[in-house]
Amino acid sequence: MIKIENLQHYYTDSDGNEVKALDGVDLTIGQGEFVAIIGANGSGKSTLARHLNCLLLPTDGRVEISGLDTREEKNMWDIRQQVGMVFQNPDNQIVAAVVEEDVAFGPENIGVPGPEIAPRVAKALAAVGMTEYAKHAPHRLSGGQKQRVAIAGIMALEPKCIVLDEPTAMLDPQGRKEIVSTVQKLNQEKNITIVYITHYMVEALAADRVVVMEKGHVRFMGTPKEVFSRVDELEALGLEAPLAAKVASELRKSGVKLPSGIITDEELAQALCQ
Amino acid sequence: MMLTEITLGQYFPGNSFVHRLDPRTKILATIIYIIAIFFAETPLSYGILTAFAALVILISRLPWLLVLKALKPIWIIVILTMFIHMFTAPGEHVIWSWKFLNVTQEGLDLGLKMAVRLILLLLFSSVLTFTTSPIVLTDGIENLLRPFKAVGVPAHELAMMMTIALRFIPTLLEETDRIMKAQTARGADFANGNMLQRLKNMLPLLVPLFISAFRRADELAVAMEARCYRGGEGRTRMHELAYGGGDYVALALVLALAVGLAVLRWGKLCGLSS
Amino acid sequence: MSIKLSNIYHTYSKGTPFERLALQDVSVAIAKGEIVAIIGHTGSGKSTLVQHLNGLLKPDKGTATIDDMDITAKGQQAKAARQQVGMVFQYPEHQIFAETVFEDIAFGPRNKGFNEEEVAKAVREAMEFVGLDYDTFAERSPFQLSGGQMRRVAIAGVVAMNPDYLVLDEPSAGLDPRSRNAVFREIMALHKSRGIAIVLVTHSMEEAVKYANRMLVINGGQVLFDGEPAAIFKEHGDELVQVGVDVPQVYKLADLLRHKGMSLPEGIKDEMALVKAIKQAKGWK
Questions:
Q1: Averaged in consecutive runs of 10 residues, what is the pLDDT profile of chain A (274 residues)?
Q2: Are B95 and B17 contained in the same domain?
């Protein structure tokens, strides 16, 4: 689905220095995969996300979406329709003052015939559990609900992949749960490929694969089990491992023998209390 | 008064006869009504206009309080208009005077008339915005402006600008409220001082507000692009506009009102009895 | 020395279809030197509550006083009282307006009537507290700093007013874990050295147990619980979940281990304490 080869992205900052936001990223993501990307601020994860639907183009290297090269201009609209993007601030991505009309914005842009739009909108709202809010004004919704409207706006374009760039950074715990479960549902039930960027490690636990970024590189990746067992490395990168992994790691350090790959409370309890 | 309590320009969802009218009908009707306001001269014609507005509000099933609240932010303007006309209009029957100020019967009449005109104008146009979702309203405007595209009127761009402005008014009002509070907590004073001082005191509010508006605009533009927005070319609509039976009835009624008022005013001149 | 709210009521958008009772009959006293966490889900009324602490909102009914001075009153004395309470809103970096870091931080002290010498001293100290080097940053434009640095400038702008009470509404929102910890380290240092009372509005139970010695749980516009965090989590864990407030991860994990038969002491606040307790329970060294 997504193929990234030696992706470089440079830009010049306000002081005139060249910044290497991405410095040789290689990553392949399969259809239906749920990939979480974590990394401290400035690690390049948002820049990477914006390469996935032509909002940014490579300085060097290439990005391919379903075999379409992002550098070729004729592919742009095709790619943007296949790869939808959800941003951090829920307020700044809703265009219309009524929920259903906002969801219709995408299909209208790509010229879906009028009568086919309403069913698409209804389906998209149902997929994120916002059907009853179809006629509501977005500014009266909670952060989590707004963000689900934004996801519905993408779903109405019938994409293959959704890229979410820190979608929960501005939400309360309730909103965070709503988004994670919505995204999981879309991944499992509609086989939508998910690229999920986050600061909250707990949210990355739901992914099939976790990619850890640092200074424009992929530092390491693997299943959540593999990645979150590397407690000290994560901390050195300014990231936090889940609590159970941290406790297990501390116990191991003082010589306690524990099986590897403990990241959830249950796994730790199992290991300690058998 | 809290800024977030301003209701002018907000949409109040519903399913009344007025809500269901084609937006073009409502825009045209509002324009005709406003023209009719300037036909009115006698108390009778003002009575008819007021009754017509009241009837429309009644049919639209809007809460009276909400509609009246829409007048709140412009009270000052209404009263100011009234006083300016009262004191400046020429007339012979002086009913009150103090130093160089004279209030004449004619001036009082004119002042009152202007105030009533302003109130009616605002009431009627607020019914338009209360009963028409901003996007539909914009659709209507775009549609009505389309014939003028040939002479260089950017119909779609204007419409899109309006949509976005309407969507972000509540958001920016909330933001203004928040920044004002934050600066007040830092000892800022927005209420006291002379004109220049006040203007200077506004900087801690205006600068962050502008920065935020630009940031929002920036993020929104990216989000719109990511949702395949590329201008008005090839766009479709979820709800294509179509006139129905009710539209003809509504237009006929408001036209009858305008013609009626014109007859009341000029009928005698043309030899018609009234 | 304390801020006292007595029997406060507050309603938003009175007389419109959007009318909402946000606080009903709330009474709270916050003494100098305390660290109080205020928690509750969005819309519970906690933001409304803290805005009564420095007169930004006026109660419909009830009184708000600082050392018996009515802070909702008019006049210089009431204003001075209100300014004893510093308020850091959510995303405070969005209120930065001045051309240099110095000028922005100096805004509050100047409004408070400090002379230029005092202003300079207050700015310097405030910057030190939030870990911004004076010589490097004072003359720079705040808008060219990183998000975490801008947040610190904004917090410094409030700290520079030398408040006796500091209210922070989610000071760590939107920051990465490293900046989150740094911001809290600075706030705690401030509390320690100046004895400022800290009122921390937060969604993170981890932050509440880690930093606060008292916790207010707000629900439906009322104070549901008021007490020591560990005690509240222990006695009312189930009720908290019902009102949409989570129990801290470390409590959950400790509870699970107890449930599986491990004997752990109460009041384990962080992971190191938990590790120690596990080792003790297991008889490991």
A1: 94 84 94 94 91 94 94 93 95 91 94 94 96 91 95 96 94 91 95 94 92 94 94 90 92 88 90 83
A2: yes
B97 and B233 in a common domain: no
Where exactly are the structural domains of chain A?
2-241
**What value does the mean pLDDT take over residues B100-105?**
75
Name which of B7, B66, B186, B216 to mutate to probe chain C: the one with the most chain C Cβ atoms within 10 A of its Cβ.
B186
Q: Is residue C260 part of a domain?
A: yes
The bridge status of strand C2-12 relative to strand C61-66 is: antiparallel
Which residues share a beta bridge with B146?
A: none
**How far does chain C reach from its first CA to its final CA, in angstroms?**
46
One domain, residues B100 and B190: no
Q: Among partner residues C15, C89, C112, which is closest to B182 by beta-carbon distance?
A: C89
* Residue B143 covered by a domain: no
Cα distances (Å, whole numbers) of residue B30 to A14, B34, B100: 50, 6, 40
Does residue B5 belong to the interface with chain A, where contact is any CB pair within 8 Å? Answer: no
H helices of C40-146, in order, are 46-51, 76-82, 101-111, 116-129, 134-137
* pTM listed for this prediction: 0.84
> Looking at the 3D structure of chain B, how many domains does it have?
2
Chain C residues inside the 8 Å CB shell of B186: 107-108, 111, 157-158, 161
A272–C262 C-beta distance less than 8 A? yes
* Residue B140 domain flag: no
Closest in B5, B179, B181 to C16, CB measured: B5
Q: Look up the domain containing C273 and give its range.
A: 248-285
pLDDT at C184 over 80: yes
Does domain A2-241 match CATH 3.40.1160.10? Answer: no
**Interface touch A87/B223, C-beta < 8 Å:** yes
Backbone angles phi, psi at A175, to 5 degrees: -60, -40
For chain C, which chains pass the contact test of at least 3 CB pairs under 8 Å? A, B
Interface confidence, given as ipTM, is 0.91
